[in-house]
Design goal:
Rossmann fold
């Protein structure tokens, strides 16, 4: 019996980043769902129940911090992993992301190996909580 592939929901309003992450993470063995804005992200999270959400901060509809706060307040989704991925600025991201319930953050531009390592770390930590 094979283990279920982790499901990642990638939320970013930049179509190039969305496509690049989907392709690369799909090749790394993840099932990937995409969302172009905050409202679509919440709808996809409620429908698909991802293991982890990669959230851009600056998105239309609802920003990534608002989405993170809603995920953490939803009893069905409070244990989903959250990694903020944004160009908002390293210090702002570092100080603000934990306030909204994010497990980790990665600044744009990012190194793909670093992002993947952080995703794995968050997934492992969240599995232990479940």
């Amino acid at each position: 019996m094979t283990a279920r592939k982790p499901v990642l929901l990638i939320a970013d309003d930049d179509p190039e980043i969305l496509t690049m992450l989907s392709l690369r993470l799909g090749k790394k063995g993840y099932t990937v769902i995409e969302a172009p804005d905050g409202i679509a992200t919440l709808a996809a999270a409620r429908e698909k129940r991802p293991d982890l959400v990669v959230l851009d901060v600056m998105m239309p509809g609802k920003n990534g911090w608002e989405v993170a706060r809603e995920l953490r307040s939803d009893p069905e989704l409070r244990n989903v992993g959250i990694v903020m991925l944004t160009a908002i600025g390293e210090k702002v991201n570092e100080l603000t992301s934990p306030l909204y319930g994010a497990d980790d953050y990665v600044d744009k531009p990012f190194d793909f190996a670093d992002l993947e390592a952080r995703l794995k770390k968050v997934l492992e930590a969240r599995r232990k909580l479940s």
